[in-house]
Amino acid sequence: MRFLRAIVREPGPSLVHGITSANLGVPDYDLALRQHRAYVEALTGCGVRVTAMPADNEHPDATFVEDTALLTPRGAIIMRPGAPTRRGETAEVEKVVREHFTAVERVEAPGTADAGDIMMVGDHYYIGLSGRTNLSGADQIISILESHGLSGSTVPLDHMLHLKSGVSYLENHTMAVAGEFRRRREFSSFQLIPVDDDEMYAANSLWINGRVLVAAGFPKTEKAISNAGYDVVALDVSEFRKLDGGLSCLSLRF
Ligand code: CIR
Known about the structure:
22% of the residues lie in helices and 26% in strands. It has 6 helices and 15 strands. The N and C termini lie close together (10 Å).
């Protein structure tokens, strides 16, 4: 598998009003901008051509563009975000997605889904049932995937915001897993890289074309992923962490 492109959305000054449960303080907007630029450079360094959407200042969480769409090799699905304040983010994203995809479908009410809850493993998509993604949303996504010859299954979440807050697929039949996902039956047949509780945030790592982007400041996880044979790139995303956002949330890859 190889990613050719990515879509990102620059953070706007309203970022400081984003949804959060992190208790890490208010993001520094200028620092967030610098971290976002470094993130885009890292994507480019992985051989990905990046489309940067302008900031959407009406939606403080819009920079977490991953949540708004699922892009598969057979078509795109526009999400219906679980947080009402995020629903308006999808309109502009859909326009950009339509420049690249002919098959574009949508999750409809009463379904809700954030694509941070969807993890691609080859042709199969694991969908977390969370505070943001409900069964109707997941069922709609699974039907659309099946209509394209792909498959999906649900994974109920106990505590995490999103599925990918606690598990990342690093290709090669390997996953980095934290917290409630370390012992889940659904993932027991994979080679698991356990992430310690004190480094839980680093479980949201991002495989791109052979490299793995890991949040800076989590040395045990960085070492474990590196020891598993990956070329690791550490990136500081402290300002996005303050809003519960991680590395994967900041882009749509396809
Ligand atoms: C939110 O609560 O929706 C944002 N503050 C963070 C979204 C993070 N996205 C992700 O994990 N995929």
